[in-house]
Structures are given as structure tokens and as C-alpha cells.
Amino acid sequence: MATRNYEGQKFDLDEANITFDLLSVEEPLQININNKPFTMIMRTPGNDDRLVRGLLYSEGVLIDMNYMPEILLNKESENTIVTVANLSVPEAKLGDGYKNSRSLLSVSSCGICGRTELGDQSFEGKINEDQKLDLYVLQETFHKMNSLQHSFRQSGGTHAAAAFTIHGELLSLMEDIGRHNAVDKVIGELILSEKICQASCLTVSGRVSYEIVIKCFSAGIPFLAAVSAPSSLAVDYAKELGITLFAFCRDNRATCYSNPQRVNINKQLFKAS
After folding, report:
1. Are residues 156 and 236 in the same domain?
2. Which is the catalytic residue, given 110, 113, 216, 249?
């Protein structure tokens, strides 16, 4: 994961000292489809092919999960920080998400920025409603994710997302300065490694917004869990789309806001809130 060392002054009451901190890198990635600009994302460099593949699928731009377009990554020029991802995609493989593209600049913190209307979203996906998740397994997924957040421990400036099987086996973990980018990188990794059908639980290190729920649904992942709070719209859509949504997953506690019938409780191993 990309970090850079920056000098600063740390103030403590009546004294100031020079300090050097590793900060997460944030740079633009422009995605071009069929020689036309589609969107620009502010992200942390690294795993860009995963990010592009996951974003285009979760946004409904590429409708065929098995279609693997070639992604050509190049710097826009020698003196710029802009990386360009070029894809050539047949029209038959493009979904409604291509027509409802974002404006050219999307920031890393808000995945819905630049959309024309909330109602432009189309929902493609299917949830396995037969699976049940043991709460002690959920607890273990967060222990695993936290232990592997190497960039966060260096910089304190990245989010993490991770995908697990129903038994808690780690399938993919990604970090990025943007919450949505980390999720898209995980989905892209699952697609490219052909493990997306094994993914049953998605964990995220921050809060849960409406769009993260949509990305989880698009990937067919029935359980979504976050360290922090969900938004009201995230809960509404999780209920509607059949996602079992957990939030405030910390200190051996979790709050389930939707579809709790798919949760197995073992009180000896997990203290639910």
C-alpha cells in the first residue's frame, strides 16, 4: 500500500517538535471506456486493476461477471500524478451503469458523488437466503481484518474491507483511503480470482452507507458488517435487498439492523448488544 513520509511540527503545550509521519497516498485514477472518459476516482495507488474491475461490476457498468476485459494502466504523462485505465468493451457487455455514469471526478470518501439521481441505480444481484452466520465467526472476521491492516498501522489514514466464507475463511482484504474503493478492490479481487461465489460476509472498517450495501448486494454477499454506524438509507436498502446488516461490531458486540433470522447466536462465545 502506498505511503509517503511527511514532515510536520507537533505542538504540545509550550513546545514544538519536528515529526515525520507516514501518510496514505491519494492520487487520481481516470477510467476510459472505449476511448471516452467514464469517471475519475481519488484512490490510494495499488491493486488498480482490482479496483477498476470491482467498481465497474458493482456499479452495473459491466453486466457479465465472467467477462474479463483487458485493463491497460498508464500514467497520463511523465509529469502528472494521474493514472489512466483504458478498457475496450463491446456494447453488449455494458449495463445501465454505463449510461448513468458519474461526473468525471468522484472523491474517495463518497461513492455516490456525481450521480445524476439516486433513482438511477439499477440492482443486479441475488442473495442466498439459506445461509446462516454464527456470531462467533463474525467476531473472528474482525480480528483477522484488524490484524492485517498494515497500511492503517503505518499511516492511520486508510480504510479496510475484507471478504470471508460463511465459516470465516479470508478470501480477500484490501485497504484504500476511500471506503468504497476498498470494497471495490475486494469485489474485483474476488472476480479475478474466481472466488466470488464463496464470499458470504463482507466486513468494513468504517461506517456503512447506502452504496456499500448496493455493492454487497451486486456481489451476491448476504452478510455485511461494519465497525461503525450505518446510515438510515443503508438499513432501508439492506432490509429491501435481503442483506443481513451488522454495525458497531467491536468489543465482542454487534447490532443487527436487518434480516436477523439468518443469525446463529452462541452466547458463550459472543456477547451480542
Report:
1. yes
2. 110
110 is catalytic: yes
Output the pLDDT for position 124.
59
Q: Which residues of the chain have pLDDT under 70?
A: 1, 8-14, 16, 100-125, 266-273
Best CA proximity match to 137, nearest among 259, 254, 260, 235: 254
What are the tens digits of pLDDT across the range 183-213?
999 999 999 999 999 999 999 998 888 889 9
Q: CB neighbours (10 Å) of residue 38?
A: 22
Q: Are strands 201-204 and 159-164 parallel, antiparallel or unpaired?
A: antiparallel
Residue 97 in domain: yes
DSSP state of 110: -
Domain count, the chain: 2
Give the domain CATH number at 198.
Answer: 3.40.140.10
